[in-house]
Amino acid sequence: MIVVMRPTATPDEVEGVKRSIEEHGLEAFLSEGEERTVIGVVGDVEAISHLGTLPGVDQVIRVSSPYKLASIQEPGERTRVRIGAVEIGLGAAMVVMAGPCAVESREQVLETARCVQREGARVLRGGAWKPRTSPYSFQGLGVPALHLLAEAREATGLPVISEVVDPADVETLDRHVDVLQIGARNMQNFALLRAVGQSRHPVLLKRGLSATIEEWLLAAEYVLAAGNPNVILCERGIRTFETATRNTLDLSAVPVLRNRTHLPIVVDPSHGTGHRGLVGPMALAGAAVGADGLLIEVHPDPANARSDGDQSLAFDEFGALMDELRRLQFVRSSADERGPLPEERPVVASGIDELRDRIDDMDARLAELIQERASLALEVQRQRDPHVHGHDVGRERALLERAAGGTSGPMTPTELTMIFDAVLRASRSVQRRHAQSVVLREDAAVGSDR
Fold first, then answer.
1. Do 328 and 366 share a domain, yes or no?
2. Which residue, among 301, 335, 313, has the nearest Cα to 121 in the 3D structure?
3. What's the rounded Cα separation, in Å, for the pair 196 and 281?
4. Residue 88: its pLDDT value, please?
5. Exposed/middle/buried for 215, CB within 10 Å: 0-12, 13-18, 19+?
6. pLDDT, tens digit, for every residue of 175-206?
7. In terms of residue numbers, what domain contains 440?
8. Are residues 296 and 248 in the same domain?
9. From CA 262, how far away is CA 231, in angstroms rounded?
10. What's the CA gap between 312 and 298, in Å, rounded?
11. Does residue 292 belong to any structural domain of this protein?
């Protein structure tokens, strides 16, 4: 800390500031210039936050970070937090946490858990208690929801994250979930922060509705100072004057935090936008700016969800988003060589009618080939575990790169890539539909055996 004295400060006022610093066990170093005196302070400066009120003091400037434990000490320093068998941060693969906003029933949470697990999510989210703006809104099932989440974890192997809203409930959640979530409304609930600081489980701390990044990091400091080193930060949007979205998702916070803290960073595009159609683009943007993970709401029937249905993805929408995220992660991490260029096939000059007949014939053969390709992709899915997605990004990327290398015809690499990308998306849709039908048949068989 640096204390800058006013030009008119008297020697007695300077001595008074120095004495106040030393009375708190800190060291004071005077530097007297031609116009001003500056006092450097070394030590824990939290105890002397009153210096700015002393006579003769012009301003007090912090040099070190007020969040000692959360701050980054060396460039590139990162923390990796373990959630069961999943790791997040410090160069680990991006982690998607997905599931319903609120646990509503056994069927809902198990069906959703199987879907998100199959599509590649690594953590299951689900609210047992829901702090709502209106007292008449659905508040969650409470402890019974924790039992359902634990059952879903047993069925899928996914670790579970759920929100805690009361310090008295921390011990109960500790027995049922793998990550304790602190919601935006409780970011500065200091009693709750201290309570989760005593937990043995990681804590996901959401940014407050109107919190600055420093306030957010100081909230994390409460958890760290209480003894829990496993804190994950979650950007979920802040309240601004804009009404087109539920909140304003501050993606710039991700690179800012990268320079200020070693803690892992997650982005929540569901709460950040409040609109289903915006979740996908903002999730991709969050991944692109360097988020360590994403928190996404998924529901089997968003139109009839009891909480936040407008921002929840249906199963097919979540699957398509996961495909896009895998492609993005592959592009960021892979450097496959391009395949060989296709052979050049010159077109023999013909009349218009003959050319059109050839186009019609080729269209028919293309349709047959695309259907045959989809049948082969479906057979690949059949031979896989139906609970595991069949998305081989490496093979898809190699195909797209071979297509982009096709420079012998009138189509540009971009146009060729667009065509093959559409074929790949359609094939994935066929595979996903088959996998879902298998799971539904299995569920029906299990139900009939009861």
1. no
2. 313
3. 33
4. 95
5. middle
6. 999 999 999 999 999 999 999 999 989 999 99
7. 341-449
8. yes
9. 10
10. 5
11. yes
Low-confidence ranges of the chain (pLDDT < 50): 332-345
3-state secondary structure 218-284: HHHHHHHHCCCCCEEEEECCECCCCCCCCCECCCCHHHHHHHHECCCEEECHHHHHCCHHHHHHHHH
Q: Are residues 251 and 135 in the same domain?
A: yes
Residue 383: φ, ψ to 5°: -85, -5
Residue 264 covered by a domain = yes
33 & 117 share domain: no
Domain containing 181 — which CATH number? 3.20.20.70
* Number of separate domains in the chain: 3
pLDDT of residue 335: 36
Task: Evaluate whether 162 touches 173 at the Cβ level (below 8 Å).
Answer: yes
**Sign of the C-alpha dihedral, residues 383, 384, 387, 391?**
negative
In this prediction, residue 391 carries a pLDDT of 64
What 3-state class would DSSP assign to 27? strand
How far is the C-alpha of 206 from the C-alpha of 235, rounded, in Å? 6
pLDDT at 359: 87
Q: Is position 67 within any domain?
A: no
Indicate whether 85 and 56 sit together in one domain: no
* The total number of residues written for the chain in this structure: 450
**What pLDDT score does 338 carry?**
31
- pLDDT for res 429: 82
What the block records as the tokens of 291 is: 């988020």
CA nearest to 251, candidates 238, 232, 242, 264: 238
Question: Is 165 found in the same domain as 50?
Answer: no
Q: Tokens at residue 344, please?
A: 């050049």
Q: Same structural domain for residues 141 and 276? A: yes
> In this structure, what CATH number is given to the domain that contains residue 52?
3.30.70.1140
**Which pLDDT score, from 0 to 100, does residue 303 have?**
93
Same-domain status, 186 and 318: yes
